[in-house]
Task: structure prediction
Amino acid sequence: MKNKKILLFTLLLLSCNTLFSQSSGKTLKDALKGKFYIGTALNLGQISGKDVADIDVIKQNFNAIVAENCMKSMYLQPKEGEFDFADADKFVTFGEQNGMWITGHCLIWHSQLPRWFFIDENGNNVSPETLKARMKSHISTVVGQYKGRIKGWDVVNEAIMEDGSYRKSKFYEILGEEFIPLAFQYAQEADPNVELYYNDYNEWYPGKRATVVRLIKTLKERGIRIDAIGMQGHVGMDGPSMEEYEQTILDYTRAGVKVMVTEFDLSILPAPRQGVGADISTNFAYQKELNPYTEGVPDSASTAWTNRMSDFFKLFLKYPGKVSRVTMWGVTDGGSWKNGFPVRGRTDYPLLFDRKYQAKPVVAEIIRLAEKK
Ligand code: XIL
Result:
C-alpha cells in the first residue's frame, strides 16, 4: 500500500514536470515575465494542431512564436505573383489565440527562396530594377498580409560573413550593399508600426559584428528604422565564450538597438569544425565519432550542457530590456533541426525539453535565476 502511494506520488510529480518546473510552481514564461519574451519556433505539425503534446508544452511555457519554415519566400511565393498564405495564416492565428508575440521570419534571405526571384525568362540574372521591384512586391505583400498582427519581422537574414564582408548572394551580386537598406525601407512602408530586425549567426566574430554595427548606423543616418538585431545563437559546447557573446550584446545595444536572441539551441555534439555557423547549405559527412549519444547522454556531458545553457540565460538576464526576447529554435530535442545539421542523422539534445516532452533540469534553474533577479 505504502509503495503504491509512493509510486502514485512519483508519477504525479513527473507529470507536473513540464508544467511546474520547480518548487515555486511557476512556468518558464511566468518566471521570465517582465524580463524578456521567451519564444519558440513552430513547425508544421504544431501549426496544424497535429502535435498535441508539443502544443501543450508551447502554451504552458512560451509567450512568443516564430515560424520555423512556413514564412520563407519559397513557401509564401513559390511562383511569381502566386502567394500561398495557408500555413502562415494558421501560424499567426495560433499566436493571436494564445496572446503571443509573433515574429515573422524572414523576408530577404539567400536560402529557401524560389529560383525565379533572380532570373529572367532566359535564365539570366535580372536587372537591378527588376530585382528591386520583386523585392518590393514580395515584402509589401507579405508584410501587408499581417499588418498590425505580426509584431516584428526578420527583414534581412544572414547577409554578412564572419570576416565582415558581405555574403556574395544574388541579392548582393545584383544590387550590392544597397539591397539591405532597400529591404528595410520597403518593410517600413508596408507597415510603419512593425518592428524591423537584421538577423544573423556567429555575430561574436569581430568582423561580422563590426559590419552589423556599421549597418545599424547607416540605416539610422538615412532615417530608415531598425529596431533590433537578431542573434540567432545556434551555439555549441566549444564556443563562443560568454565574454564574446556579452561583448556582442553590448556593441549592438550601444549602437541604439535592442537585441533578440532569435534561434537559440545549444548542440551537445562534437562540432565537425570550429565555428561552423548556421548556413543551411553546410554539410559534413557522417562519422560515428560525431554522433556519440544515440543511447542517451552521460551525466558529465549532461551537467556541462546544463551549466552552459544556464550561463547563457544568466547573461540574457543581466540585460533585461536590452535583450527583449529569447526564442528557442524548437520545442523538444526530437523536433530540433540540429539532428540533421550540419551532419545528417545525428541524435542531438540542444533544447529545453527532452524527447518525452519533459522540462530538462535547466528549466528549473532558469526559473530560479529569473526569480532571484
Ligand atoms: C532551418 C529550419 O530549422 C529547418 O527545418 C530547415 O530545413 C532549414 O532552415 N538560420 C535560419 C533558420 O535563419 O531559418 C534556419 O532554419 C536555421 C538557420
